[in-house]
Structure formats: structure tokens, C-alpha cells
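=== RUN LOG ===
request id: a7f3
mode: sequence -> structure
chains: 1
length: 201
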Amino acid sequence: MTMTGKERILVHACCASCSSHVLEYLSRRYRVTAFYYNPNIQPEDEYRRRWEDMRVVCSRLEIDLIPGEYDPPAWWNRIEPYRDLPERSRRCWECYRLRLEATASRARELGFGIFTTTLSVSPHKVHERIVEEGRRAAAAFGIIFLEEDFKKKDGFKVSVERSRELGLVRQDYCGCLLSREEAKKRKGRKRPGGESSSPPD
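=== RESULT ===
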């Protein structure tokens, strides 16, 4: 696939479902390489399953995919002081920071001048915090963070449609064991009529 004239961008891919739309969307403007760095995802068999789905997406889109190191202890060390906090708290901000620092570092190492993340396509992630951590990482490594909010223009809806078309399994928790336990609790709280109070990811 010829992509001459397009700037190269390294995209942190949080999962295949979110990436299915974001990578395709960015490919219209950039020469995209996906970077799968998610030591937060546990247990390991879940991590491997999501990695295989990422391979499917990148193969279909003809996008290069780089695996990051799978190092759950690094993630636990980063969020340990905040493990008792709920989602959308300092616990998650530290998780954003760890992954975006790693992406910026790899981008600089490989000669990319710009990077971003698929995280913002999810309505359960806080875009302002993603931007804050992206800017911090960009400044540390002397490159640019693309601050786009990919959930805009029905981005999340399109990602759901794309993931269905590709036969991807949509996860019911963010990735870490703490979020999995929180998802289980949400599912246990039923609304009238038997509907779960847990929104789809």
C-alpha cells in the first residue's frame, strides 16, 4: 500500500475494538503504525486474546503492529497507591501516563515525530486527562501528541460497528483486574426489568 507524502504517526492501541475505527480513520491522513503496550490487561490469557484481535485488525487495514513489553508488575507498581480509588480517578490517570510515556519513548526511538492513542474513542475514558498525559509525555521526549477526541462524529458507534464486522469480541471491562471486579459489581446491580446498569465498553 503506497503512502508517500503522509507523515508517520505511532498510535498507542488500547484494544482491537477501539482501534478498528481509529486506525482506519487516521490512515486517511497519516502513515500509521500501531503500538500495543497494555501491561494493565490481566489475566495474561485475556491479554493474549486481545493481542490476537489486534493482529486481525492491523492485517485487515494493512497497518504495521509493534508489540510492547507485557510487564504487569510495572503497572501495579505505578497504580498501587491508588488501587482503592474507583475508575475515572487518579488510578486511571496513572495508567494513562504509563502507557503514553512508553508510546512516546518508542516513537522517539523509532523516529516518529507524532503519536496518539485510541483511548479517547471510549466514552468511559476522560479525554481531558488523556490530553494532559499525552502532552506531558510529548514534552518529555520532544515530540508531538495528537490531541484528537476520536469519540466525536460517532467515533465510538463506528468502532462498535467495525468490531462486529470483523468478528471481534468486545470486552466487558477496561483491562485491569480492578476494573473487572468493578464491572462484575455493576452487572450485579440490576435495573427494573432485569437490565444491567453496566454500560457497554
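=== NOTES ===
The helical segments are 16-26, 44-61, 72-79, 90-110, 127-141, 155-165, 177-188.
The longest helix spans residues 90-110.
=== END ===
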